[in-house]
Amino acid sequence: NPEKEVILEEIKRGEDSPDRSLYRGVYSNMYGTNGYGRPVIGFPKTVKACSASMLKSFWKKWYAPSLMTVVVAGDVDPIVVEREVMKTWGKAKTKGLRARRRQIGFDQKIAPIKKLTAGKEFPVNAIRWAAAVPACNIHASILPALDASGMILGQGESSRLYRRLFREEQVVTSISAGVWSPAGVGMYSFDAEVPIEKAGRFRAILREEIERFCDEGPTEEELDRVKVAIETDRIYGAQSMDGLANRLGFQKTVLGNTHFDLEYLMSVRDLTLEDVRLAAKQFLNLDELREYALYPKKFEPVKIWPKSEALSKPSVAPKSRVKTVASPVSGERLVLKNGIELVLYPRKDVPVISMQACAFGGVRFEQKSNAGIGNLLSDVWEKGPHGWSATRFSEFLEGRGARIEAFSGRNSLGLSAGMLTQRFAEVAPVFAETLFNPALEESEFEHSKNVTLEDIRTIEDDSGRLVGRIFCENLFEGHPYAFPLIGYSDSVRGLSHGDLLKHYKQLIQHAPMVVSVSGKFDSKKV
Predict the structure, then answer these.
(1) Of the candidates 412, 419, 484, 495, which lies 20 to 30 Å from 260 by C-alpha distance?
(2) Distance (Å, rounded) from C-alpha 415 to C-alpha 382?
(3) Model pLDDT for residues 68-79, shown as the tens digit of each residue
(4) At 63, phi and psi to the nearest 5?
(5) What does the pLDDT average to over 452-467?
(6) Residues ≥6 apart with Cβ < 8 Å to 79
């Protein structure tokens, strides 16, 4: 009973979350009340009806030895591990049940289309919109091509939808797309956050860009970037023992094939431009696009959809995210002639390098009058070095499976990078150039400033962020830690491009700095 109350309270809290409400609507529109259409956490009615005996029956049925996989990854002796597993797990009893066969695949039904558009009023200050069409399952041979199309369309700053809707047209404050491929029928989905005043424009532009992609397909550069990104993602996912064990367990238990990732990557490497175009063309039927939106009270849905597209009221859980943590290792410390402290932490197990340059900064170096300047600087800073456009910079990084990102916290300000070891010679000089000679273009500053002001305006849409801000304001009253990282509307609105340049020079060019490097590298080259 105590645990049931905890779950019921979590369900109740989820009803206040825009993200959960949005994706409940999307999943319900797609799958109805069966399978993936039901929230993972359950419904209040089903949770209340659950008893201890029901839990025991469920456990006996599904937590059977024949359905379990034991995965061990790390610095171990396989023979010793096998011996220990046989002495412990190997003696687990079947609890009187026959050995059950593991099911590979899932016959998930798609709900029949009743109405293509649905939505509801919600306490938000901007429109939260998502849409999806049915896609393939994880076993389908077309999945690599479909995944590639989703990444080219809507993942990363060089993606087509981001460049068109966010950078060029500026009709959204966020936009993404991608393919979810479970054991059953999956989804090709899109989601966006849209300022109220842009409600009537974004859908037409998005549809136009999707149709163009289905007709013309990707460019060679786009496909090359995606191939690198997919392979890099697989390598990054295996750089910790936790991540490697999770992935092997998933492949064996859910897919029944521990070679799945290798076969998938081989298919990705063989992809052609036409493979990707045809995959998108096959699944992206915009006449079947099921849309769901959350919009403020008193907002008129006809501003999003024509009157002919009536509304229904569908409800499911967002996908879970798994975090992995790497263990610390020992290293060496050097002090350069200019005072920069260099810390090296070599690791030989994974061909990845992470770099971070950090200086004193963040809200502790801000006043109420300029609160948010560090956050704004980090947003503009990560657009690349002097002489580069933001688009060229993002294409360079994605084409090499690398990242360069700025950060501003409570005490620190800096730049970080991640890359494969084989890409170090290409990426490290660009990282250094971005660090000490960034573009910091005035146009990017104005754009980021507008996005930040919109973010501040919609902070009340996220109860977690709002509570965190109020907590800090009360706990740290009279201290800079009381300021929100993104600042206040008045402080951000009052910032100029000159203020940004001055802040950068004071904290980065004229202050102490530490640069740390971790991964598989040659110390002399670093």
Answers:
(1) 419
(2) 8
(3) 889 999 999 999
(4) -95, 60
(5) 90
(6) none
